[in-house]
Amino acid sequence: MLARTYGLVRFERLNIKNMTRSAKGTVEQPGRRVRQKAGLNRVILAQGWGLPRQRTRDKAPGRVEDVPAPYTSLRCSACGWIEKKSRKSQADFVCVSCGFTCNADENAANNVAAGQGGIPRPRRSAGAGGVTAATGRSSAREPQPTWVGIPLF
């Protein structure tokens, strides 16, 4: 259905292999809550999180895009601001910059659909999928000093 309906399908790039690693630890430092982690791993693997992406890629070659997973759940889908404090709980998202309120999963899904994610520093933009305001420099860098015309010797 995804391959027939949409011209471009985006998936969040999750590293399932690392997410389902064992929590056993080593002999010197044994793991904690190993049984709970084993149960979580079993559920994740039983759900087959990677299968929908793989099947869609097979049926719609060239129209499947991966979106980096970091910061998709912390970025405001309305203004683009990334802030850890915006994620009030597992289910609630309230942007500290613009006040946008939404379900946290719905907000993350909007960011994935817009292709937004993986940018480590907070950025102000025109919204998820919008264009960053033209400042003449990258908004992901520290501000650089402006020269006022006084020569340095």
Give a verbal description of the structure:
The chain is built from five helices and four strands; from the N terminus they run αβαααβββα. It is extended and about 60 Å long. A hairpin with a 6-residue loop joins strand 3 and strand 4 (101-103). The protein has helices spanning 2-5, 16-19, 34-47, 51-59, 104-113, and strands spanning 9-13, 64-68, 92-94, 101-103. It has a two-stranded parallel sheet. Strands 3-4 form a two-stranded antiparallel ribbon. The protein is α+β, with helices and mostly antiparallel strands and 153 residues long.
Offer a few descriptive terms.
10% strand, two-stranded antiparallel ribbon, two-stranded parallel ribbon, 27% helix, 153 residues
What best-fitting shape do the alpha-carbon axes yield? extended
Gyration radius from CA atoms, angstroms? 20 Å
Strand order in the largest sheet: 1-2
Q: Average pLDDT, to the nearest integer?
A: 80
List strands and helices in order, with pairings.
Layout: H1 2-5, E1 9-13, H2 16-19, H3 34-47, H4 51-59, E2 64-68, E3 92-94, E4 101-103, H5 104-113
Parallel strand pairs: 1-2
Antiparallel strand pairs: 3-4
Summarize the entry for a quick read.
27% of the residues lie in helices and 10% in strands. A two-stranded parallel ribbon has the order 1-2. A two-stranded antiparallel sheet has the order 3-4. With 153 residues, the chain is α+β, with helices and mostly antiparallel strands.
